[in-house]
C-alpha cells in the first residue's frame, strides 16, 4: 500500500498534535507517512522551554504556562503520550500525574478607593475540587451552564450573608430562587430564557439600589459589590444573547467587545474595568499594539470567546481549575511527544526554516515547499536532549537546552560566536536549500505556523486565495514579555501568606504572576541558595521602527524588559511581597538569578481574539487549497482564543480532515 506523505510545517502544539493524531493507530500509520519540520534545535513554538546549564539548569520559558482544568484535548494528548511512552525506570515523570500538579487558588488584584486614597487588594479565590480527570469527556448537560450561573450567584450571596440585612434584603433574592427552580424543573428540556433574564434584572435593580452603601461599608462590601455586579451582568448577557442559541450563541456576539457587552447588560461604570473584567484581557494579552497601560482604551476581546472561556473556567474544569507543570513546558509536554512520535516512525527534521510556499499554476494547491537548511550536522543526526536531575533520589528528566549543542553542528562554534539565534527569523544562517515537490516528496502539507510567520513565505497563497489573505492580514498578534526570578528567601519570608497561586489583573505591564517554587527540585541550584521561584508576564509594545528587524533585536529588547521590570518591581512589588522592599525599592540582593525575555519573532507572538476577527479565521480543514491544512490556535475551532487547548484541538481537526475520519484520542492510562 502506497502511503500518503504528509509534511507538517511547525513544531509547536498545533503541528505536534497533528502529527500525533495522524499516527494514533496502526491503521493510520499504514496509511500516512508523516514528516515534522521545525526551525532551531527544539520543539515547542511558544511553548518551548530551555535549560541553562550555566545557571543551575534553570528553566527558561517564553512566559507563564499553566493548563486550565477544561483543556480536554490538551490533557488527552499529554495523557496519551505518557501512557504510550516507555520511560526509563528512574525517569522522574512516569505518568501525567507526575508531570502536573493541581492549583485551586486564583488571585485577582483590585485597586479600591477609600478615604481619598487607592489601595491594591488581593482577592484570593479558592475553587473546590471537582470530579473527573482532565481529558475525560465532558458530561455537562444542555442546561448545565444555566444551573451553574444561577448557583454561583446564590453562593456569592450566601458567602456574604453576614452583611447588614437592611442592604441584602433589597436584593430580591427570591428571584434567584425562582430562576433556580425553573431550571431544575426543566431538566434537560427547553428553558424560558426570557423569564430568567427578567428575574435577573429584578435582582440587578435591587442590587444597584444598594450599590453605594455597599461600597462605603468596608473592603469586603466592595469585593461583594464587584463580583455581584459583574456576575449579574454576565449572567443576564448569557441568558439573553448566548444560551438560547446553543452552540451558535457565542459566535453571535463575537463582533462585540466583552467589556462593552457587559456594559450593554447592565454592569455599572464603577466595575466596568474591575478585576473580574480585566481577568481575560490580561491573561490573553488582549491589548491593541500591546498598549496595556492606558486601562480599557486599547483593550479588545471578542465577547463570545470571552464568555465561553469564563464559563468553561468556572464550571467545566475537572479536578482543579488550574494545573501547573512540574518542570518546563518543553520537558513536561514536548519531551514525551518527541519520543512517541519517533517511536511511531515520524521523521522529525530540526534546523529547517520555511522560506517559500509555491502554488500550482491555477493556484489550487501547494506545489513546492522551499526550506532553508540552517546548519549541517556532524553525524547527520541531532540528539536534542540533556539529562537533568530531579530531586534528591536519583531521578532525572530529558530536557531541551536553552541553546543548541554546538558540538553536534558543523562550524557550531563559529555560528555561536557570531551571535546567531537559530530560532529567530531575523538571524540568517544557511547550509543550503531543500526544495520539496508535491507528488515526489510530499502529498499533503499542514501549515502549523501562525499567520505572522506565514505572511512572507506564503505570499503566493495569499495572492491565490482572498480568504487566506484576509486570515493572514486580519488576525491580530502582539509581542509579550516575561520575567523569572529565583529568590533567596521563601515566598512566606517575602511576605506572601496566601500560599501557591496564580495572579492577574495587577499593575501593567507585568500584570500576571505565578508562584512557581515547586520547580526548585527540577533545577540544580547549590543547596540552600534558591528558596522561591516566581514568574511574571504581560503584553509588550512593538519596538521602534519597522520590520525587518536586525538579528539579535529580541535579545537586546530583553535588556529593556529588565530595565522596565526593575522599575515595576520598585514601584509595585511591595503589595505582594512587603518584605522584599528596602529603603522604598525592591531589594535586588534577595534575587539569586533572573531571566528576562521579549517575544518578538513571528512564531512567538501571541495571537489575539479581537472583536470582528473570529469570522476571518479559517478552519483546519478549510485552507482554500486542495492539499493544505491548518493547525494552530489561530484557526477557527472552538472558542478561537490563544491557548494550548485550541492549538491541540486544531492539530487534531487538521489530522481528522486529512484522514477523513474522527480519531479518538481517549487515553488508556
UniProtKB/TrEMBL annotation:
Species of the source: Azospirillum brasilense
Positions of the Amine oxidase domain: 428-658
GO molecular function annotation: oxidoreductase activity
Protein name (database record): Putative NAD(P)-binding protein
InterPro entries reported in the protein's UniProt record: Amino_oxidase, FAD/NAD-bd_sf, Zeta_carotene_desat/Oxidored
Amino acid at each position: 500500500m502506497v502511503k500518503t506523505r504528509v509534511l507538517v510545517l511547525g513544531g509547536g502544539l498545533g503541528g505536534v498534535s497533528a502529527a500525533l493524531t495522524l499516527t494514533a493507530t496502526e491503521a493510520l500509520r499504514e496509511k500516512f507517512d508523516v514528516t515534522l519540520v521545525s526551525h532551531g534545535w527544539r520543539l515547542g513554538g511558544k511553548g518551548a522551554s530551555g535549560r541553562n546549564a550555566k545557571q543551575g539548569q534553570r528553566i527558561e520559558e517564553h512566559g507563564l504556562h499553566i493548563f486550565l482544568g477544561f483543556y480536554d484535548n490538551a490533557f488527552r494528548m499529554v495523557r496519551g503520550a505518557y501512557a504510550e511512552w516507555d520511560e526509563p525506570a528512574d525517569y522522574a515523570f512516569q505518568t501525567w500525574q507526575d508531570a502536573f500538579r493541581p492549583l485551586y487558588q486564583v488571585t485577582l488584584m483590585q485597586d479600591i478607593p477609600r478615604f481619598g486614597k487607592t489601595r491594591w487588594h488581593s482577592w484570593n479565590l479558592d475553587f473546590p475540587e471537582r470530579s473527573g480527570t482532565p481529558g475525560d469527556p465532558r458530561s455537562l448537560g444542555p442546561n448545565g451552564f444555566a444551573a451553574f450561573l444561577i448557583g454561583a450567584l446564590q453562593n456569592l450571596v450566601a458567602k456574604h450573608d453576614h452583611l447588614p440585612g437592611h442592604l441584602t434584603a433589597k436584593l430580591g433574592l427570591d428571584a434567584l430562587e425562582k430562576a433556580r427552580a425553573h431550571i431544575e424543573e426543566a431538566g434537560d428540556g427547553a428553558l424560558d430564557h426570557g423569564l430568567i433574564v427578567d428575574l435577573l434584572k429584578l435582582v440587578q435593580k435591587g442590587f444597584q439600589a444598594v450599590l453605594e452603601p455597599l461600597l462605603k461599608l468596608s473592603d469586603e462590601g466592595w469585593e461583594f459589590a464587584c463580583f455581584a455586579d459583574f456576575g449579574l451582568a454576565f449572567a443576564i448577557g448569557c441568558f439573553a444573547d448566548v444560551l438560547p442559541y446553543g452552540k451558535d450563541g457565542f459566535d453571535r456576539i463575537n463582533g462585540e467587545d466583552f467589556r462593552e457587552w457587559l456594559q450593554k447588560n447592565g454592569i455599572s461604570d464603577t466595575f466596568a474595568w474591575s478585576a473580574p473584567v480585566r481577568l481575560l484581557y490580561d491573561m490573553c494579552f488582549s491589548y491593541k499594539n500591546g498598549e496595556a497601560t492606558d486601562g480599557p482604551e486599547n483593550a479588545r476581546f471578542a465577547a463570545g470567546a470571552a464568555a465561553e472561556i469564563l464559563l468553561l473556567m468556572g464550571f467545566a474544569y475537572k479536578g482543579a481549575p488550574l494545573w501547573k507543570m512540574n518542570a518546563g513546558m518543553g520537558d513536561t509536554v514536548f519531551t514525551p511527544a518527541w519520543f512517541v512520535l519517533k517511536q511511531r516512525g515520524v521523521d522529525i527534521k530540526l534546523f529547517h526554516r520555511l522560506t517559500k510556499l509555491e502554488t500550482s499554476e491555477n493556484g489550487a494547491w501547494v506545489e513546492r515547499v522551499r526550506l532553508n537548511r540552517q546548519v549541517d550536522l556532524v553525524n547527520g543526526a541531532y540528539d536534542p536532549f540533556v539529562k537533568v536531575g530531579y530531586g534528591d533520589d536519583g531521578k532525572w528528566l530529558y530536557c531541551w537546552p536553552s541553546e543548541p549543542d554546538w558540538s553536534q553542528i558543523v562550524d557550531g562554534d563559529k555560528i555561536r560566536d557570531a551571535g546567531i539565534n537559530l530560532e529567530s527569523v531575523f538571524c540568517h544562517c544557511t547550509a543550503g536549500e531543500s526544495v520539496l515537490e508535491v507528488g515526489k516528496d510530499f502529498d499533503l502539507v499542514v501549515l502549523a505556523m501562525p499567520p505572522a510567520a506565514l505572511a512572507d513565505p506564503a505570499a503566493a497563497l495569499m495572492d491565490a486565495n482572498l480568504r487566506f489573505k484576509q486570515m493572514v492580514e486580519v488576525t491580530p498578534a502582539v509581542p509579550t514579555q516575561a520575567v523569572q526570578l529565583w529568590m533567596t528567601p521563601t515566598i512566606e519570608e517575602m511576605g506572601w501568606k496566601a500560599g501557591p497561586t496564580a495572579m492577574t489583573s495587577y499593575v501593567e505591564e507585568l500584570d500576571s504572576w505565578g508562584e512557581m517554587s515547586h520547580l526548585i527540585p527540577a533545577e540544580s541550584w547549590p543547596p540552600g541558595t534558591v528558596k522561591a521561584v516566581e514568574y511574571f508576564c504581560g503584553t509588550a509594545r512593538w519596538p521602534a521602527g519597522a520590520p525587518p528587524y536586525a538579528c539579535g533585536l529580541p535579545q537586546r529588547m530583553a535588556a529593556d524588559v529588565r530595565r522596565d521590570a526593575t522599575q515595576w518591581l520598585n514601584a509595585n512589588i511591595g503589595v505582594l511581597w512587603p518584605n522584599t522592599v528596602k529603603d522604598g525599592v525592591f531589594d535586588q540582593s534577595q534575587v539569586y538569578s533572573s531571566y528576562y525575555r521579549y517575544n518578538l519573532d513571528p512564531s512567538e507572538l501571541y495571537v489575539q481574539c479581537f472583536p470582528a476577527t473570529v469570522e476571518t479565521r479559517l478552519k483546519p480543514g478549510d485552507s482554500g487549497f486542495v492539499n493544505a491544512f491548518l493547525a494552530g490556535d489561530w484557526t477557527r475551532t472552538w472558542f478561537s482564543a490563544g491557548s494550548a487547548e485550541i492549538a491541540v484541538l486544531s492539530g487534531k481537526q487538521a489530522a481528522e480532515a486529512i484522514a477523513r475520519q474522527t480519531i479518538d484520542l481517549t487515553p488508556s492510562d
